[in-house]
Structures are given as structure tokens and as C-alpha cells.
Design brief:
The protein is mostly beta strands and 89 residues long. It has one domain. Helices cover 0% and strands 49% of the residues. The chain has no helices and 6 strands.
Length: 89
């Protein structure tokens, strides 16, 4: 089980689109997306906890990939962040 939080810290006036958070795994040969979450409320600057099961990868060596996407109209950096990622047994 991996536990992680996420937040959209952007100023709602920056012209940001929805924030996408993706959790995936790679075994070195292929990539599999396990979870996608889209934050549509740009005004909610809050911690949102999520959990993703890694049970099917037990005993394997994998890369856990946390990704974000948030296009900004003005070309500035987005403040879309993962908070305190952890893998728990």
C-alpha cells in the first residue's frame, strides 16, 4: 500500500486548468498507471489523502512513479504537489 497526499496550491487567478495526479508503477519493462485523480476545484488548497494498493507487486522490485500535470496559460510554474509519500506494509 502506498499512501500519499496531494494538493493544488495555485493562485486561482493564474489561469490554471484542472490539476491531474497520476500514480504508476514500472517493472523496468512496462509502465502501468494505477490511479488518476483530477482536482477540479482550484480554490480548494487542502491536503487530500489517497491510497493505492501495491499488493500485486509484492516481492518485486518496481519504480513507483508520482506524476502531475497542470497546464498554465501564462507559462509559469504550477504549484501542484505530492505531500509525504510513503509505502506501508
Amino acid at each position: 500500500m502506498t499512501r500519499v497526499g496531494l494538493a493544488n496550491l495555485n493562485d486561482p487567478l493564474c489561469g490554471a486548468a484542472d490539476a491531474s495526479f497520476m500514480v504508476g508503477v514500472s517493472d523496468g519493462r512496462s509502465f502501468r498507471q494505477l490511479r488518476t485523480l483530477v482536482l477540479r476545484d482550484r480554490l480548494a488548497k487542502q491536503y487530500i489523502p489517497i491510497e493505492v494498493s501495491l499488493a500485486e507487486y509484492s516481492g518485486m522490485t518496481i519504480d513507483l512513479i508520482l506524476n502531475t500535470r497542470m497546464p498554465l496559460q501564462d507559462g509559469s510554474q504550477s504549484d501542484v504537489v505530492w505531500i509525504d509519500p510513503a509505502v506501508a506494509h
